[in-house]
Design goal:
This protein is an alpha+beta fold. The chain has 6 helices and 5 strands, in the order H-E-H-E-H-E-H-E-E-H-H. The chain has a 5-stranded antiparallel β-sheet with strand order 2-3-1-4-5, with helices on both faces. Strand 4 and strand 5 form a beta hairpin. Forms part of the ribosomal stalk, playing a central role in the interaction of the ribosome with GTP-bound translation factors.
Length: 171
Amino acid sequence: MAKTKVQKQQALILLEKRLKGAKSTVFATFTRMSISDQEALRMSLKEAGVFFSVFKKTLLEKVLKDMNVSESGIEEWEGNLGVATSDDEIAPAKVFVKSLKAYDGLKVRLGMLDGRIIMDAEIKELASLPSREELMSQLLGVISAPITQFAVVLEANPRNVISVLSQIKKE
């Protein structure tokens, strides 16, 4: 059933709000994907905190034109067009790049990072970056390493004294 003009207008407003409010966006097309594969992709995006929806190319072109983004080339893309938006800079890219290996018909076309257009190669680079939580744990490891090593050095002297005394006792 075709959408009414009011429904299309609401979809435009929703899409524009999502694109303007998101820190990162990934546009992908998918063809020859089964419904179960599409649902699995949606679930993995949802688990990562990514909003995903399928839009008509004409609606997306209209919104991007309103946002002064003209270099998209959407009219040449084949297949259904999915838009993934998130407040996390890396999450959509990570999920899509991971899913590229699992689904043949999925293609990452382009993305937006803080309002700037990024191409598929940059999306793949972005996906290889560690997440914020991974970076925080690495930082904590680096900060705690000298303290841990200092504690080991302080324990070494009493341990050595005890070892010498036990050797003397054995003799």
